[in-house]
Amino acid sequence: MALSRLSVSNLRNLAHVDIQPSPAVNLIYGENGSGKTSLLESINVLALGRSFRSHKIKPLINESAPALTVFGKVSHSGTEIPLGVHRPRIGDSQFKALGAPVESLAELASYLPLQVINADAFGLLVGSPKLRRQYLDWLVFHVEHEFYALWRAAQRCLKHRNSILRRGRIGEGELTPWNLELASCTEKIDSLRSECFERLLLVLEPLLKEFMAVDGLKLSLYRGWEKGRAYQEILQETLPRDLKQGFTGSGFHRADIKIRINGQSAADILSRGQQKLLVCALKLAQGQLFEQLTGRRCVYLVDDLPAELDEKHRYLLVKWLNILRTQVFITGVEVDPLISPWSDQNQEVKVFHVEHGEITSED
Ligand SMILES: Nc1ncnc2c1ncn2[C@@H]1O[C@H](COP(=O)(O)OP(=O)(O)OP(=O)(O)O)[C@@H](O)[C@H]1O
């Protein structure tokens, strides 16, 4: 699975870009503010309908243009899937796959699975549980087809339940249908998440050994309510508290991956550098497990690699990206620190230079 063509119009300072990336390694260098991150952002927009810098696409439209367009072709098992995103300044975004409008952003996301390693990704460890939940759900979404429908149904129930709770006065039996459906979806979501998580731990183990020399590191899944209890029971038991707060306090929406070192939160113990290495290992494990379970490979976007990792760990990340045999796009200000880790990896490397939003291939 690789992006074989990328064409961008009017996304930030990228007026017109049309490149044919390498199916393996793409190194993008240029001065600060030249447009490197914008190029990665355009791939993110194509894959997910949004940027990794902001949830809104509008600020991405070039300030003097009426719309932005990103078009790409994803090659997979000898076929090519055309994808397109068009966002006018006034009006709604249009997303297309295989020449037709997509039904949902979830459908769009299924065509080009992406992993992003950038300064924000390093917040995975220290950020809110939502980020770690999203990390796990990315995997569950891509490998378990029933997950998305379950997750949507559970969100809908939660919304209804919360609006009844907020109202305060509850008619007899009013909560019952929502509780029942919420509990049924929640238990299924939990079991899909737990299964993926167990598999993830197996893949993560060898990566952690290489990336982190830290004893006592342990990852565990908190499912969002008390261990060993049925969720339905919890909903009954916590009703007085939920009523007081006006929302449902326990459930799939509270799940988290707890990362601890000898019982203490890893975020409080690890250095900033170690946190980055742990996040790299987590991201690599996700790509590796994704391939094991689906036979597909995700594309990695790595923004400003030399600024984020020292030389030794840049080589280590490259070694593992090479093992994954996945398509990568890596940016940096200087070209040499980007190229040198790949010199003996026997991969098809393409180098792109970005200057004032213009991109030239150096092959
Ligand atoms: N809507 C917009 N219209 C036009 N230009 C924009 C818009 N949004 C941002 N820019 C400009 O686009 C340029 C590219 O930014 P980008 O973040 O891609 O640079 P970069 O090469 O990754 O830089 P750095 O190395 O500093 O991270 C910047 O100069 C920015 O000011």
From TrEMBL:
Subcellular compartments: Cytoplasm
GO molecular function: ATP binding; single-stranded DNA binding
Residues reported in the UniProt entry to bind ATP: 30-37
Superkingdom in the source lineage: Bacteria
Annotated InterPro entries: DNA-binding_RecF, DNA-binding_RecF_CS, P-loop_NTPase, RecF/RecN/SMC_N, RecF_2
Gene3D superfamilies on file: P-loop containing nucleotide triphosphate hydrolases, RecF/RecN/SMC, N-terminal domain
Keyword tags: ATP-binding, Cytoplasm, DNA damage, DNA repair, DNA replication, DNA-binding, Nucleotide-binding, SOS response
GO cellular component, one term: cytoplasm
RecF/RecN/SMC N-terminal domain ranges (all copies): 3-356
Family: Belongs to the RecF family.
NCBIfam families: recf
Function: The RecF protein is involved in DNA metabolism; it is required for DNA replication and normal SOS inducibility. RecF binds preferentially to single-stranded, linear DNA. It also seems to bind ATP.
Entry protein name: DNA replication and repair protein RecF
Gene: recF
